[in-house]
Structures are given as C-alpha cells and as structure tokens.
Fold this sequence. Notes:
The complex is a heterodimer. Chain A is of the alpha/beta class.
Amino acid sequence: MGNIFNILMVGVGGQGIIMASDIVSLTAMYGGRDVKKSEIHGMSQRGGSVFSHIRIGEKVHSPLIAAGEADILFSLEEMETLRWIGYANEKSIIICMKTRINPAMVEEYPAGIEEEIKRASPKACFIDPEPLRKEIGNAKFLNVALIGLLSGFVDFNEDCWEKAIREKVPEDTFEGNWNAFHTGKKLYREAFE
Amino acid sequence: MAEKKLLSGNEAIARGAFEAGVTVGTGYPGTPSTEILESLTTYPGIYTEWSVNEKVAFEVAMGAALSGARCLLTMKHVGLNVAADPLFTASYTGIKGGLVLANADDPAMHSSQNEQDNRHYAYAAKVPMLEPSDCQEAKDFTVFAYNLSETYDTPVILRTVTRLSHSLGVVEIEESPSREREIEGFRRNLKKYVMIPGHARARHVVVEERMKRLEKDVNGFSINKMEIADSNIGFITSGIVDTYVREVFPDASVLKLGCVNPLPGEMIREFFGRVKKVSVVEELDPFIELRIRAMGLQVEGKKYYPVTGELTPDLVRKPFQGEAALTVKTAKKGLENRISLPPRPPSLCPGCPHREFFKIARKLGLIVTGDIGCYTLGVLPPYNAMDTCVEMGGSIGHAQGIEIAGGKPEGTGVVAVIGDSTFAHSGITGLLNAAYNGRRSLIVVLDNSTTAMTGMQPNPLSGQRINGEETVRLDYIKLALAFGMNEENVRIVDAYRPKEIEEALTSLLESKRLSLLVVQGLCIILKKRRRKAG
Ligand code: SF4
C-alpha cells in the first residue's frame, strides 16, 4: 500500500520471533522511518504458532499487514511458512529456515511442505540452519544471522542495525551476534547479488 | 525536548502516566494489560504493587487518589468485572488526585475466556472513557486523562485492545517531564466520601450534572478529530479501527472519537451535516452506532461488520469494495496453500510441574472443575483433564455446586483445580465458603510459585513483591486450620512425585471431608530465568 514496506515474521513460540522483529523495527526507527509492529503474546507463547507484522514507511497507520501484502515473509519454521503464505503475493520475497518442529500431539511432520512452498512461490529461498550455525559458532546467534540476510532486502545503513542489535541482545553476546549479522549479510551477497 | 522511542501501546501508557506525575500504580496481571504496570515499575519515584485482585487494586488506587496522588490502575477486560463494585461508587465519590483505569479488551480472545466490550462499563458507571488508536496516542491520551480526571473529579477509563497494547510504534516522549505535584493527603469529607444512602443520593445528582457538563465539553476536546475530504461517505471511528479505516479508505471523511463516553453529540451532528452517508466502524458491540441512532440519526455499522472477533483492514474493506463514491485500496492477491496443516495449539511446556497432576486426574477419571492460568491447558490433549473453566477463582465454587446437586456419576470424585495466584485472587473466599457450609470437596492448588501465564508475576504465594523484594508467603496449613479444617486434610506434595500425588488424591477423596491438596513445583521457565540471572 503506497510506499509502505511490509515484513511478516513467523515461527513457533520460543524461537525468538519477538526479539528478531524488535530488532528490525528499531532499525527502521533509527533509520528515520515510521514503523509499527504487531504480534500476539499470551497463550500463543506456549509452543503455539507465533507471528509478527512489521510495517515500515513515511507514515504507517495500521499495525496489521493485509493478506497478500507482505513484501517479505520471513519464517523460522517450514510448516509455519505455509500457514502464513496467504500474506505473501507472487512478488514477495520468502525466506524460510529449514527447521521442522512438530506441533504438540503430532508425531509425524506432514509431508510435501517444502514442495508446496516451492509450487506457490518458485523463488522462495530455503536456508539450511546447520552450515550457518557451524559458521557462526552458536545457535543462539542464528536469528541475528538471518536478520543479516534480511538486511540485504531493506535499505538501512549499518549503524542503525548495529544500534538496534546492541540494544536488544544481552551485552556480553553483542560481538557474537554482530559477527553472525555479517555472516548473514555475506550469505545475502552470495545468494542474491 | 522530545525524543523518539519505539514503545508498545502498554509501555506508552506507562510512559504517559510517568510524565503525568503518577506516584502510585496498582493492578492485577492479565493479558493483554500486564506490561503497563510492569513498565511503570521501571520509572523512579513510583510505588507499584500487584494486588491480590482487581477489586483490591481499585480500592488501593482509590485510597491514594483520595489523598491527592495521581494513580494508575491496570487490568484486563474481565478484571473489571471483579472491580466493577468500587468503580460504580467511585464515580459518585470522585477522586481528588487523578485516577486513570487502563483497561484492556481482548477482541478475538487471543487469551481470554470471553470477548466482552467494556465500553458498556463506562456508560453504565457514568465515567469518561478515552480510546487511543496508536502508541503515540496511548501516551498522549494518558496524560490527557489525568487532567480530565481532576478537572471533572472522576475516575477515567482508558480503553485499549490487544491489537494496540501489544503493537509497537514510534512515540515521542518528554525527556525530562516535570513530575512535581503537591500531594495534600486525605482530608475528611463525609458527604463526599461516605456513601450512605443520604449522601449518595446527593452525589448521584452531582454525577448526572458532571455527565451533562462533559457531554457539552467533550465536543471541544482535542482528542476528537473531524477530517472532511470526500463528502459522499464518512466514517465514524475510534481506537485501533481508525488506523484500518485510514489505510483502506485514504480519501474518506473521518470523525475519529478519542472520547467514546460521553460521545461528542454536536460534532456528530455536524459530521452528518457535511457528508451524505455515515458508517460506524467499531469492533465488538454496536456501542457507538446505537447511541447515534438514539440521537435520531440514520447510521450504519453492524450491518457490515461482525459483533464477534477483531476487525482487520481486510474486513473493514470488504463491504465497500466496488463502492463508486469511494477510493478503496485493494490488496494484492495472496498465494495459495493447497495442503492441510495440523493446528499448532499452545501446550504446557515440556517438563512443566502441572503435567503429572493432569495425567493422574485423567487416569482416576476425576471430574475436574478448572480455572484460569497455564494449567487451563490441562483441558487440551494429551490430558483432556478439565471439565469447567469460567472465571478467576470460579473452580472452587463450581465443585461445591456439583457436590450439592449430587449429579456426579457413581464412583467419580470431583476436584477443584486452581493456581496459586488465582487462589490468592479469589479462591480463598471460595474455600472459606466450602468450610463454612460443610462441603466435602477436594481443592487442589497447583502451586508453581508464580503467575506464569501472564509472564511470571509474583503473588502472595511467591514470597516476593512486584520489585523482587522479599515478603510473607501465605501459609496454606495455617490458613486451612483457621478455616476450621482438619490438619490431616491439608497436604502439600511435590509436583514431580506422581506416586505421592496419586496417593494424596485418593486418600483425601476417601476421607469425605473438605480437603486441600497443594501440589508444589516451581514453573520451569521461571527456574531457568532465575538460573540465568544467577
Ligand atoms: S510457563 Fe511454567 S507453569 Fe506455564 S506451562 Fe510452562 S512450565 Fe508450566
């Protein structure tokens, strides 16, 4: 809508969606833009499906993204990517981490998820967390690495990212997170430039 | 000097209260209102407490307000049901120091047992209600509410909804607000503060006069805004839905109501004079629509929108798609998923102390009357071990009713299950009722030493106050003895020892006397957090 940029972040309770979306929102504010973010906590935190809408622009009204209007669908879990895919359109960038978390009471992960995502959006990008995790050395920095990747798609200067990450991660983990951010950025350059 | 911060609606309300010079904050945790008070505790010079329930929170805040302090009171929508009693009479007594009740509704019931529309409370209790629509307004309206409260000598309700409370937006804040305010202390004023019928009759007249004055003045409040653009169709909005309307109908005329009780009648009439057709966009009940109709004006609203659930930009758009007289921004077509996915409902955390009890309750085939908290999830698979869940503190009374009616199948026991915070909130009175009336129910407190569902707030069974200070911890055994219960009918067991839980359950049920079983196990999320903090 207009020149508003919409990012939908999705995943499972406990994966760190809230913090990741906080970092992106703060960066947008430090970049001098208006930003609104919306999510639901409470019951959904107990291993339920979690989503966070981020909207960035000159003047943002609604904190909610309309269906079909996400410019980026950023997902930390495969099944959740598909659950929210109606928010993306054919031009949207879809970043999906290849992590599978079974819902409570579900023994077997449903088949064909990846294929269906690829069918719906042939240019969806899948990230295998393992090599990335090895490269950054700590699973705790994974989300910030993915944010580094995401940073390739949105135009904010690095100072803004740094300030936001510094504010949101525990002080003694900043270095590790900041390195992870750059690993993610490198991944963007290799894959998308 | 103003500085920009990214704040949630809840944090913005706390910031507004701080800037307005609030020195006392009380409340009971409840999603989505909880972070207001939590955020208030981060500011200097403010006393805060988690009260045992919303009614007590109201009473404490009111006492402070009657002494001249500005107070913030927080609770979720259903919490106001508990505090409704003092609210209606506080409207009569007035407040002296500004008293603002931040009350969070939960359209769509993201974490609530019902979807009530608390605008009706403002109307029924005859107190002003303001409704901000974004985080900046959440802060600004809070400051406005304190001035309003003192100017008209009335409590003011600031209504928010989940979608605002938990959204994040850019807020301009005062870097060093002047918080200096003289607090006079309590001065006796029997005719105003002692609501015996003779005094109250006179005060009711004052309340009606105040509402009359407000009905006039509200038309001049800066928080109500009329924007005339297209003169064909106009929308009346308030709160979060205003942002959806602006998004979807960028050129429409909008009358945005910052104050939803009383409504600015003159402004509304003027709006009707300037646009041809008017629609109200509001979540939940047709609160504004019905009052405008009562003014004799033709307006539409609920004809287009549901009375259940949240509105969204998509829902707001739908009825007006293709409307020639209106620019409607249409959304792009979303991608389609063709395979069906299993739902991902919330569940008890792995290793949660409540798990063993529910397994046993199901194994024993007990009828379990339940309550509000993490343990409500015991109703879901794999436990399926809960049979009622209505309101905070309700489980204990429900079990008594089932016992009295005698309708339970032969051989099944009835137990009431309640959490520690909920027990303190309004379970104790239920237990007293059972003792007093000679019931034989078994009451089980699942004690995880915290109010876990809303984010680990301490309570009178945690041994800590809101700021982490050590304090008394309620002694279950002494309490039960004080209620005249037998010592052998009060047992405390470890939540991770299933054999002991089962043994205690069966023997207490067999005893056929009023019993209290406390199943203790620290919430593991809290345990992890404490370990991290060292
Ligand atoms: S938060 Fe604590 S009490 Fe609640 S489900 Fe998790 S472990 Fe259990």
